[in-house]
Specification:
mainly alpha; 9 helices; 2 strands; elongated
């Protein structure tokens, strides 16, 4: 069934409004249009329309996303987040290489800076504080070995409990 001119106009306007204030991935825009009640034909038409103007570009979206978060999240965490948003691995890899060649991220340094935002070097933490810090860092995609070696380098350790001293 062919779309009427009115349907084409509505889906195109909705797609433009959705992209007006926020970049979206193709998957994200498609979901928003689907949730708005448009038919698959209308969705395709609206997406083709905004794509023709360059308003929908997963590569650009991935580069912008990575660039804004490269200083506080690991490469692995960024990959997982973008995969969830519908960016494929190949697009992520191209975007990562582009941004990493400019910003040159050092994950170990980023990890140390995140730790130092919370605790000064040489700090002794309770078991609960250590668990929270480890969870915070691992949720940002840092590997356990990197976390432990960074804590060691910064001389941040868990304080001994009185019953551990025997």
């Amino acid at each position: 069934m062919a779309l009427t001119e009115e349907e084409q106009l509505k889906v195109r306007q909705k797609a433009m409004r959705l992209l007006e204030h926020m970049n979206r991935t193709e998957k994200g825009l498609e979901e928003k249009l689907k949730n708005a009640g448009f038919s698959p034909e209308a969705i395709k038409n609206g997406m083709d329309y905004v794509r023709s103007f360059g308003y929908l570009n997963d590569q650009r979206y991935a580069e912008t996303y990575i660039s804004s978060r490269i200083g506080c999240k690991s490469r692995q965490k960024l990959l997982l987040e973008l995969l969830q948003k519908g960016i494929d691995r190949e697009t992520f890899e191209r975007a990562w290489e582009e941004i990493a060649s400019i910003q040159k991220p050092d994950e170990r340094q980023i990890l140390k800076e995140l730790i130092q935002k919370k605790y000064a070097p040489g700090t002794r933490l309770t078991e609960k504080e250590m668990r929270r810090l480890y969870g915070y860092l691992s949720r940002r995609g840092f590997r356990p070995g990197d976390i432990f070696s960074s804590l060691e380098e910064l001389e941040i350790a868990q304080e001994k409990e009185p019953w551990d001293e025997k």
